[in-house]
Each structure stands twice: as C-alpha cells, then as structure tokens.
Write a structure and sequence with these properties.
The protein is an all-alpha fold and 220 residues long. The protein has a single domain (60-214), classed as Tetracycline Repressor, domain 2, CATH 1.10.357. It is 73% helix and 0% strand. The protein contains 10 helices and no strands. Helix 1 crosses helix 2 (30-40), helix 1 (9-26) packs across helix 6 (103-114) and helix 5 packs antiparallel against helix 9. The radius of gyration is 22 Å and the shape is globular.
Length: 220
C-alpha cells in the first residue's frame, strides 16, 4: 500500500493521524483502527475499504508514509556532494526521524510485526524501506551488488531502529552513535569484498584450467 493518491487516500491519512495518537497509548489493534476511524469521522464501511486487511494495512500505510517523508527530507540535501556512506547514514537517520513524533506507536508497530504471525509482513516492509533508501540516494546497481547492498542495509536499519526505540536520550545520541558504528562495520565488509575480488582476479580462471585438463589438445 503506497501513499499515492487514490479514492481512499484522504481517509487513510485521516485515520492514520488519529491512529498514531491511539497507538501511542494502546498499541495497534482492531480497536485502535476503529477508534481512529471514528475520531477521523470515517464511516466504518469506508474504513474497511481503505484498509481491507485491517491493522496490517494501517501499519503498512504508516511505513509507506515514513518512507515518503524520508524521500522528501532528502531533497533538502546536496547528495551529489556526499560520499555513499554519508548518504546512507543520512537517509537512515531521516527515515527514523520520520517516526519521532510518535515513538511509542513506532515501538508498538515493531513489536506487532515481530510476532510470528506477522513476521513475513515485517520483512516485506523492511525490504521496501531499504530499497527505497538505496534508490533515493541514487543507487543504480542491477547486479549482485543490488541484493548485497539491500541485505546489509536491512541489518543496519533494523538494528538501528530497535536501538532508537529503546534510546531515552532526547537527541538520540546513543542511536546515532550506534548507526555510525554499524555503517563503519558494513564499510569494512565492503572493503574486504573488494579486496577478495582483487585477489581472485590475480589467479587463473578455474574454468579455463578445468577445460584444459579435460581437453588437453585444445588451445586456450
């Protein structure tokens, strides 16, 4: 579920705004959704059409809204003048800060998606967020790096987000220090991968060697 305009987008936005206040105190549930719809003045039938899967659709819309806010915030920065690690760090921070106005609700959403029944949904939203981050900062990879970048960032983003939910510092000092360390670790992995590729490039192609052994009379 995206935040692009359609027939029910105004209802979704109104319900989400009210639901965040409800979820700050009572978490995410069908009761939260219904109470939010009532406060937003959205009829029950339109509420069901706006969020057919109920709370899962509401949380998905919440995540998509935060993704969109991150993209909008990035527009105010000169990404072209920044290193990749700086862009990634900034994007992760902006994505988390998009949740800051309702931190208890964000924490509750994470716990909701961590339940075994909804783990698949949580992974889908995590992938969507890290994919959005990479695209927003200008990544155009299409090879194996496309997947490795998203896998690594998923670990960085998820662990940083959990750290943020438990960080009691008003300025998020603990969270951003943790993020910096994780990014440093990931950059170390990338350097090691690059070094390994460089080392392997110095060795003969194993396929050519096997071919020569199998076909000794064939010139390679």
């Amino acid at each position: 579920m995206t935040v692009s305009d359609n027939l029910y987008t105004p209802d979704r936005r109104a319900i989400l705004e009210a639901a965040l206040i409800e979820a700050d105190f009572g978490g995410w549930s069908l009761e939260t959704l219904r109470a939010a719809a009532d406060k937003a003045g959205v009829a029950r039938e339109r509420q069901r059409l706006a969020f057919p899967r109920g709370v899962l659709d509401l949380i998905e819309f919440y995540s998509a809204t935060a993704d969109a806010a991150m993209i909008e915030s990035l527009k105010g920065h000169e990404l072209a003048a920044m290193k990749v690690r700086e862009r990634v760090t900034l994007a992760v921070r902006l994505r988390i800060e998009a949740l800051a106005a309702h931190k208890p609700a964000a924490r509750a959403a994470l716990h909701h998606l961590a339940a075994p029944l909804f783990a698949g949904e949580g992974l889908k939203l995590l992938y969507r967020t890290v994919d959005t981050i990479w695209r927003a900062i200008g990544d155009t990879s299409t090879d194996f790096n496309f997947y490795s970048k998203r896998t690594l960032l998923a670990g960085v983003y998820a662990s940083t987000l959990w750290t943020w939910t438990e960080d009691m510092c008003e300025d998020g000092t603990k969270t951003w220090a943790f993020l910096d360390r994780r990014i440093e670790n990931v950059m170390g992995i990338e350097k090691a991968k690059a070094g390994l590729r460089g080392a392997l490039a110095k060795f003969p192609d194993p396929l050519k060697i096997l071919s020569a052994l199998r076909y000794p009379d064939k010139r390679t």
